[in-house]
Structure formats: structure tokens, C-alpha cells
Amino acid sequence: MVFSSVFFLFFYLPVVLIIYYITPLKWRNAVLLVFNLIFYAWGEPVYIVIMFASIAIDYTHGMLVEKCKARGNDKGARWAVASSVFFNLALLFFFKYWDFIAGSLRSVGIGFMPTLGLSLPIGISFYTFQTMSYTIDVYRGDARAQRNIVNFGTFVTLFPQLIAGPIIKYKDLDDQIDHRTYHVEQFASGVQVFVVGLAKKVLLANNLGMLWDAYKAMPVEQLTTAGAWLGLLAFAFQIYFDFSGYSDMAVGLGRMLGFEFMRNFNYPYISKSLTEFWRRWHISLGSWFREYLYIPLGGNRVSKPRLFFNLIVVWAATGIWHGASWNFLLWGLFFAAMLILEKGFLLQYLRKTPAAVQHIYTLFFLMISWALFAVEDFSRMGAWLAAMFGFAGGGLADAAAGYYLRSYLPMLIIAVVASTPLSARLWDRLPEKPMKVILPVLLLGGLVLSTAYLVDATYNPFLYFRF
Fold first, then answer.
1. What are the residues whose beta carbons fall under 8 Å from the beta carbon of 402, sequence distance 6 or more?
2. Residue 134 has pLDDT above 60, yes or no
3. Average pLDDT score, the chain
4. Same domain, yes or no, for 59 and 12?
5. pLDDT category, 466, cuts 50, 70, 90?
6. Is 459 part of any domain?
7. Are residues 171 and 219 in the same domain?
8. Residue 1 domain-assigned?
9. Is pLDDT at 458 greater than 70 in this prediction?
10. Distances in Å between the alpha carbon of 221 and those of 214, 233, 244, 383, 393?
11. Neighbours of 458 (CB within 10 A)
12. pTM (whole model) above 0.70
């Protein structure tokens, strides 16, 4: 089940909200847990068993860690944390990376690992990271062990952010799981954020995704330099509005249910360096890797060689987290190399240049990174990168590039504006009275237009579901 579907918008969500709010406060987590499990099982009923196992393992390990710590048995607590982390990583490895490693080994003549052909459980990369951080936080004393398994299960399966984030650390939601407040302003704010996210996804990401798909399906020998850049520009906006739209919808749904989730995107395309970009893009993932991998490795309080090693480890992990494919590892290592250059010497020179130069530098290397990310086949990736730099089989431009540019230019202009804080700043300058009239009209218009697209469209992917 996806948020951007007519069934979810006009049946599942209203039913959840009505039953949730007529339920007495002490039973709301139990009701929400049931709806969470229905939401997850809707697409993959078989894998609900994994969800139950994840809840049971991490719930018991959290209490075991706290019990060992209370008795002064730090070694036992560390073993409990280690076994919890091992379980979660083993789960992720088995479903996400087993066939990838087996296929890679077989390609070099090593065939002891059979390929299993198992489908990837939706959201496994997100919920395993969430539950893994729980026992670590309990060990560190950053969170209390949750003694109510219903409340813990509600955290693990919370449907607004279950299958594509943002990645919520238990310590950030601990108090809200047990006790949360409800007020009309919070609910109204949630509706507003949700509709904005829905419009991002349906009106921008889906439409620009069709332009990217047209170029992705094109034979590389027909690709032009202009087409390579135009296609990747469409992908850059598609993945941003797809994932930030989903994150907005998750935050909005959370507020409707009384929760506050962290912001996951902060206008990343206005960044003036790649370092800044990664402070603004997928903030919850960056925060997770920084807290649970980068800092334990020593962070930046180490020698320069060790700092660079830490960056390589973190970015290799970030890359492979996104998918079981060599191009994702290459994508992660590309950012590791660029961030090493920036931290080593480049940033100090870059900051002395005009802001426009800094923006152009950042966007140029981001476009190269999206080519590594979006094109999984290495031979095709090489041809695509060559086309970007003028070595295209189809030449510099063709009639198709001109046609697509003319057709999608209004959408691209809207995407450019929507990916900056400009519209938000203009909105904040409106007088309060006109704003109260205009806002409901815009939200209703966005909902109606998005619904019309959903009723008519067959193209409605969520890119981050596959991660």
C-alpha cells in the first residue's frame, strides 16, 4: 500500500483516523499496532513473520541490556547489544545482499553460494536500522528499555515511516510512544504537510520520472549530450520530489496521529558544497551513520589519514545501503573521494569563490553522482558519462532533446523553484488574513489535482521502496 493511492487516501487513512480517535487513549497504541501490521501485510503478508521476529528479538534484547547494566554486568550488556546488531545485520544481509554476493562470486567462477531469488521485504533497510539503534541507545543510557511490547511494536511498525523512512531513532520517539498530546493545530499542520508531500510526489516526481524513463530506455548509441544531461536533470528532480514528498507525507501522517518526526530534507539543491549537500539530503540516514558508525570510528577527532579512512568506510556503507549493486558502492565511494578532497583542501578555496561558482561546482558533481546512482549497468554507465562530456553516439543534440525540453520546460521551471526556499519565503510574507483564505483553497486544489492524476495515471512508483 502506498500513500499516493486512491485507496489509501479515501479509505484506509480515514478509517484509521476515525477508529484511532474514537479509541480511549490507553488503547490507541494497540489499535495503531494492528493498523500498522495491516498496512505492512497488505503488500507482503508472508514477510509479516519477519516483522514479528524483529519486534520480539529487539524487545527482549533491550530489556536484557538494561538488566545487565543494572547489575553492573557490562560485558553481558555488550554481548546483548552485539547479538541484537548481529540479528538485524544478518536479516538485512540475507534478504538484500545474499543473491548479489552469490551472483558476483559466480561471475568469477566461485559457485558455493546458490542464488535464492527471494523478493526484498519492503522497508527492511529502514526498520532494521531503527531497531538496531534501539539496543545501542539503551546500552548508552540514551533511552529506557521499553517494557510494554505493544508500545515497542508500535514503534517498530509505525506505518507513516515504516517502509521508506525517515529513520527514527527510538530515543527521539520514546516519550511520544508512551505519552503524546493531541491538538487541532497539530492535526491541521499534519494535513497541510501531507498534501504538500502528495503534490510533490504525484504532480512533480511522477511527471518528471516519465521523462527520465524515456531517456533510460533509449539505446545508448542514440543518446546525445543534451539528452544525457536533460535525462539526468529529470532524474535529479524525480528522486528529490519522490523521496522528500514521501518524507513530507510521513511527517504529516505522524502529526495527524500525535507524533513529531524529524525533517528529512532541507532544500539540498541550494547547497554550495557536497559537504553541505549531505547535511541537507536524507538527514535521518546521515544522522544515523554519523551517530552509530562515523563517531564510533573516531569521527573527525583523529589524524587526517584516519579521518579519510573513516569517510571511506561510512560512504561505502552508505552506498551499499541503497542497494545490492556495484554502482551504489561506486556512488558511495565517489562521495567519499569528493568529501575527502573538500575536507583536505578544496573547501577553503571554494569558500573564497562567488556563491554562483560554489553552486555550479556542487550541481555539476551531483549530476555526475546521479549518473552513477541511476544507471546500474557499468557499460551503459560508461556510455552515459561519455555522452555527458560530448562523446555521445547521437551527437550533441537531436530533435528528440528539443521536443522533450519544450514539452517539459514548464515542469522543470516549477521544479527548480519548488526545490528552493523561494516559495516558502514569499508565502511567509503574506498577511495573515489572506493566508487563512488562500491556504485551504491551495490545499484542496492540490488534493483534487493529485487525485485526478492518480485516478488517470498508471505510473506511480516510489523509488526508495526498493532500498
1. none
2. yes
3. 91
4. yes
5. low
6. yes
7. no
8. no
9. no
10. 14, 20, 33, 8, 5
11. 4
12. yes
Domain range for 88: 6-180
Q: pLDDT tens digit string along 176-214? A: 998 888 899 999 999 999 999 999 999 999 999 999 999
Query: Which of 155, 180, 205 is the last residue before a domain boundary?
Result: 180
Q: CA 368, 371, 373: angle at the middle one, nearest 5?
A: 115
169 with 105, same domain? yes
Cell 528532480 found at: 237
pLDDT tens readout for residues 75-124: 999 999 999 999 999 999 999 999 899 988 888 888 778 888 888 888 88
14-23, 117-126, 394-403 — which is least confidently predicted?
117-126
Strands, E assignment, 124-228:
none
220/218 Cα distance (integer angstroms): 6
- One of 61, 183, 282, 322 is an active-site residue; which one? 322
Extract the C-alpha cell encoding 305: 589519514
Q: How many domains does the chain have?
A: 2
Specify whether 227 is located in the same domain as 350. Answer: yes
Q: Does 197 lie in the same domain as 118? A: no
Burial of 259 (0-12, 13-18, 19+ CB in 10 A): buried
* Rounded distance between C-alpha atoms, residue 186 and residue 252, angstroms: 9
- Residue 66, classified by CB atoms within 10 Å of its CB into exposed (0-12), middle (13-18) or buried (19+), is buried
- The pLDDT, as a whole number, for residue 188 is 93
131 and 70 within one domain: yes
| Long-range contacts, 421-427 (Cβ 8 Å, 24+) | 421/267, 421/270
Distance (Å, whole) CA 169 – CA 175: 12
Are residues 66 and 215 both part of a single domain? no
Q: Is 179 a catalytic residue?
A: no
